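Please decode residue identities from the backbone states below.
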């Protein structure tokens, strides 16, 4: 098939667990949905390649280079490889993470 319709709005905040799902993948990148319930935290970490993080629903604090940036719905940040960063959900949030195809999604499960 030459196309795939993807729904990013499916969410389930029934518990306090962060959920990570690969929703799309092509020859160069992966789009990952991260469900972050209120007050959940993704510990400081680095990506091996450049990334983009976009808040599709909710609000997060994005820690980077000794700053806390408030990202609201539809805000997006591009981060270069090997820059430490962290995320904290200020409300139930849906995050879109774009990773290099070469990066390992399983690495994300160790961050909370």
């Amino acid at each position: 098939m030459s196309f795939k319709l993807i729904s990013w709005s499916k969410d389930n905040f029934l518990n306090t667990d962060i959920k990570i799902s690969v929703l799309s993948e092509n020859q160069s990148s992966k789009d990952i949905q991260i469900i972050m319930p209120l007050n959940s935290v993704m510990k400081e970490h680095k990506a091996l390649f450049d990334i983009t993080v976009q808040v599709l629903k909710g609000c997060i604090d994005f820690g980077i280079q000794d700053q806390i940036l408030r990202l609201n719905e539809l805000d997006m940040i591009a981060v270069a490889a090997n820059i430490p960063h962290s995320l904290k959900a200020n409300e139930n949030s849906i995050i879109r993470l774009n990773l290099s195809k070469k990066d390992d999604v399983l690495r994300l499960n160790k961050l909370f």
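Observation: The mean pLDDT is 90.
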